[in-house]
Amino acid sequence: MAKKVKAKPTEVVIELNALGMTPLLRAGLGGLAASLLARFYELDLGTEWPAPVPVGQGTAIVEPERVVLQWGNSGPKPFFDALFEHAFRLRRLTRDLSVIDLPGTYPFGQMSPPELAQALQGALRRTFLQHGKTAKKAAGQPRLHELERDGRRVRVPLQGYQDYVHQRGTTREGIVRALRSGSVALAGWAYPGAAQRHFAFTQTRCEFTAAEALCGCFAMVGCLSFEIERGGALVIPDPSDLVVFSRLRPRLSPLRFEDVYVSSPSEAALEVELALREAAAQDGKRGVAATHTVTLRTVPWAKQLKSRVRTLSLKDLEEEILDRYSEASLRLRTFVRATGTDAARGAAKSPSDFFLVRSALRAFVADNLARGRPWFSGFATATTAGNRPRLLHKFYERGGNGALRYDEKEGLTIMEELLEEAEKIFVRSIHQALRQRFGAIAEESAGTKATMTNRFDAERERWRLAFAGAKTHEQIRAALADLWSRGGSNRELQESWQAILPLLREERWQTARDLGLVALASYRGRGMEAPGADDDLEPDDED
Q: What is the pTM of this model?
C-alpha cells in the first residue's frame, strides 16, 4: 500500500482568542492587522477597509476576531518574504544612514521626523531589540541631526542600522518550518522576558506554533515602547476588534521625540490610554479591551538582558482619572535642555548637545492615578529613583536632595483644583497661614532684602521639616496647630472648620501630612521664589 503523503498547508488562520494567545501575542496579531492596513493604503486598491490585501502571490484578510493568510500553491516562503519585507523596513534618511521603519505604527504618508524615529528605535533597543545581535548597526559614527528647542539649536545623534532580526531570512524560515513541525523556538526579541533562562535548562525554552510565532514577530508593531531611566516600558494594547485596532494603532504612537522618554511605566500606560481615548472618539469604537504595561530592567542575577520586573494592567479606566492625568501632563512635560559650556552661558549660536529633563512630579501623579489612589498620596515620603534619590516635596537645588522644579508649581496648583472640597479648604487654610507668616517677616525685614530672603527660606524649611518629620497623628496635628496659631486669624478655618475636621482624625493623619506638604510646595507669594533655579539643572541631577 502506498504511503499517504501529508498535504502541504495553503493557509494559516490566526484566531484572536485562540488557546495560548497571551495579551502580547494578541497585540502582535493587532500589529499584523495594522501592517496589512498600511499595505492596503500603499497599494491604493480603491475599496473600503477591511478588504483582501494582496501579499506576494497570496492574500491576507483581516476580520474582527481573526486574520486569514492564504498563499495557495505558491508556497508559504514567498508569501512570508513579501509580508515581512513590507512590514519591517529600513528608512533611508541620508545616502548612508537608515533607521528602523515600521509602517504599521504611523498614519499612512506621515513618517516620523528623524529625531522621533531615532527615539523610537532607541526605545525598541530597550524592549524587543535588546541583544546586540538583534540589530546590526551601520559602520561609522552616528550622524548629528539639528533641531530647535526653546530658541536654541541642539544636536541629536542618529544611529543608522544595516538590518534587524525581523528582516532576516532565518526568522521567516523558522515560521515556515513550524507549519510542518508544529512549533518553533523564538528568543526574547519576539517576546521580551520570555527567553530561555540558561543554556543548561532547556525546559525553560519558549516554543510557539507558527501562528503564535507570527504574532510574536509582529508584537513590535502592535505594542508601544518607551524609554525610562535604566530600562524600558512596554505597553501592550489588548485588541478586542482587529479591524478597529488596525485603524487605531498608528494614532497611538508618540508625536514628539520627548514623549518617548517617560519618567515611569505608569506614565507610559496613561499616555497610551489618553491616545486611545482620543483615537476612539474619532473612530467611534475603542477596539482595545485593556492595556498591560511591562517594566524591563536589568537585575543583579541577569545583567545581560533586561528582565520583566513589574506589570501594570488597566481596564475600564474611569474618565475622571484620565482627565486628571491629562491636566497634569499638559503642564508637567519632559523637555529638552541644551548642555555644554556654550549653552550654560546662553550666548553661543552654534548647536549644543542636550539632555532631557523629566518631571518626577508627573511620574508620581501617574503612579497614584494608575493605581486608583488620590494623586497626592505619599507625597511626604516620595523620592525619585536612581542612585541619588531626591525628595519630591522639596525644591531642587544643585547639590541638594530636592527634586521639585519651580516651574512645576503651576502643575501643583492645577492639581489642587481637582481635590475634594474639604481637601481644598484644608490647603487654602495653610496658604492663608503661610501668607500671614511671610507677610510678618516681610514687614520685620523691610529694607534688607538679603535678610528677608534668608528668613523666607528658613521659615519654609521649618514647616517642611515639621510636616515631613511627622510620624504620628499627634505630631502632624501639633505641627498644623502651631502653623495656624502663628498665622493669626484664619478665615478658611473660621468658616469651614467642620469640613476639615475629618482630615485631622487619626485614621487620616497621613493624608493631612501629604496635603500639608502639597500646600507648602504650591504656595505662591510675593518674593517667595524657590531656592534653586531651574537653569541650574544638570544631566546627572536628572538621573
A: 0.90
236 CB-side CA count, 13 A: 25
- Residue 507, CA distances (Å) to 215, 466, 474, 501, 513 in order: 50, 19, 12, 12, 12
Residues found in the chain:
543
State the DSSP string of 388-440: S--EEEEE--TTSSEEE-GGGHHHHHHHHTTS-HHHHHHHHHHHHHHHHHHHH
Q: How far apart are the first and last CA of the chain?
A: 73
CA distance linking residue 325 with residue 314, whole number of Å: 14
Rg (CA), the chain: 28
DSSP string, 255-322: SSGGGGB-SSHHHHHHHHHHHHHHHHHHHS---EEEEEEEEEEEETTEEEEEEEEEEEEE-S--HHHH
β-pair partners for 156: 145
> Across-strand partners of 208?
184
Q: Summarize the confidence of residues 291-304 as an average pLDDT.
A: 87
* Residue range 12-18: mean pLDDT, rounded: 95
CB 87 within 8 A of CB 221: yes
Question: What is residue 91's three-state secondary structure?
Answer: strand
Q: Using the 8-state DSSP alphabet, how is residue 447 labeled?
A: T
- Say if CB 119 and CB 261 are below 8 A apart: yes
Q: From 532, 481, 474, 536, select the one nearest 506 (Cα to Cα).
A: 474
- Non-local (6+) Cβ contacts of 60 within 8 A are 36, 52, 53, 67, 68, 69, 70, 83
Cα gap 223→229, rounded to integer Å: 19
**Rounded distance, CA 101 to CA 123, Å?**
13
- What CA–CA distances, in Å, run from 250 to 122, 130, 272, 286? 18, 23, 12, 14
Strand partners, 297: 231, 307
Least confident window among 184-193, 337-346, 480-489, 497-506: 337-346
Residue 306 half-sphere exposure toward CB, CA atoms < 13 A: 28
Angle at 403 between CA 398 and CA 404, to 5 degrees: 110
CA-to-CA distance for 520 and 513, rounded, in angstroms?
11
The letter for the amino acid at 288 is V
**What are 456-461's contacts with CB under 8 Å, separation 24+?**
456/527, 456/528, 457/531, 460/520, 460/528
At residue 195, the pLDDT reads 64
Instruction: Identify residue 427 by its one-letter amino acid code.
Output: V
Q: How many CA atoms lie within 13 A of 86 on its CB side?
A: 23
Report the pLDDT value the prediction gives residue 168, as an integer from 0 to 100: 92
Element (H, E) at 53: strand 53-55
Measured in whole angstroms, the distance separating CA 176 from the mean position of its chain's CA atoms is 35
C-alpha cell at 79: 508569501
